[in-house]
């Protein structure tokens, strides 16, 4: 090539450049611009707080904002939008997350952050909140977490929390959360075949504790509750010394019938096939185990409540 330098050979080879830091650096720059108010085209109003941002960033990571800014909604042409039913601090954290992909979930913000993330359809943050709550499950709070998960349609967390409640029922039944449960939820728990209890006495005691927590309004529910307690699985001694002497039980004729049924189950073993029903079925205690010895070998199997077992 005359008068110049030949930079390319005849083969015309090329190279591909891929910067791993490009997206990161660009979003760091955009976040700095947001913080300085540069090129911001939207101001989010929530409560008394104003949050400046860029529509394209919000729309790129949140289906909620994508619909708001790209469809024929009035907000798509506005520079100021007021949001309702969302916590101001949570919204600010989520806008920050849209730029940085980082957020801290903890005890102080999870209850406002999860519903806010659900509203904005930020599923990654929502999942992080559920993961945090799952790690915090304890007998003292599992019912509250279960209710929170149900309210916000977190199905996996709901299932895990419910399983935790069943597995730790003895401890859970002694908590304030249990005492405040509505009747339906108590009935659902004590009706479960998967309730993990060392003996049916724990279920009976839990029911009486719940009733006596607000005895004036709850005494009417004793018959419905006792139908879910598996009285035939209680020992005959316990039935006579505890159940038969309890005034809350003796007050209701339906409960007397249940007590007679349980005593017949003990006194007439040849009739157990006829007397069998949901109350005579042992609970399947998932996660619990016992050791049986047969022909010199130890065999492990799921633990089952036995009629007449004692604490």
TrEMBL record:
Coiled coil: none
Name the UniProt record assigns to this protein: BTB domain-containing protein
CDD domains for this protein: BTB_POZ_KLHL17_actinfilin
Pfam family, any one: BTB
Superkingdom field: Eukaryota
UniProtKB keywords: Kelch repeat, Repeat
Residue span, BTB domain: 40-107
């Amino acid at each position: 090539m005359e008068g110049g330098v030949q930079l390319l050979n005849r083969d015309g080879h090329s190279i591909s450049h891929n910067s791993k830091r490009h997206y990161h650096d660009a979003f760091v720059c955009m976040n700095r611009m947001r913080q300085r108010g540069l090129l911001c085209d939207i101001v989010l109003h929530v409560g008394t707080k104003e949050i400046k941002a860029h529509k394209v960033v919000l729309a790129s990571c949140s289906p909620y904002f994508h619909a708001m800014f790209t469809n024929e909604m009035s907000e798509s042409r506005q520079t100021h939008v007021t949001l309702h039913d969302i916590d101001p601090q949570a919204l600010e954290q989520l806008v920050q997350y849209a730029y940085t992909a980082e957020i801290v979930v903890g005890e102080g913000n999870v209850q406002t952050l999860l519903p806010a993330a659900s509203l904005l359809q930020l599923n990654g943050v929502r999942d992080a909140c559920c993961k945090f709550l799952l790690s915090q499950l304890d007998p003292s709070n599992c019912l509250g977490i279960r209710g929170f998960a149900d309210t916000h349609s977190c199905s996996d967390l709901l299932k895990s929390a419910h399983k935790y409640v069943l597995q730790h029922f003895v401890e859970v039944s002694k908590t304030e959360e249990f005492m405040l449960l509505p009747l339906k939820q108590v009935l659902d728990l004590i009706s479960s075949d998967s309730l993990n209890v060392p003996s049916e006495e724990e279920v009976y005691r839990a029911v009486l504790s719940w009733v006596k927590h607000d005895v004036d309004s709850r005494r009417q529910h004793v018959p419905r509750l006792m139908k879910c307690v598996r009285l035939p699985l209680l020992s005959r001694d316990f039935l006579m010394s505890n159940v038969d002497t309890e005034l809350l039980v003796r007050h209701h004729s339906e409960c007397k019938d249940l007590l007679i049924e349980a005593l017949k189950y003990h006194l007439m073993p040849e009739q157990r096939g006829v007397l069998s029903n949901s109350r005579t079925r042992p609970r399947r205690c998932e996660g619990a185990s016992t050791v049986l010895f047969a022909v010199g070998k130890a065999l492990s199997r799921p633990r089952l409540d036995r009629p007449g077992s004692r604490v």
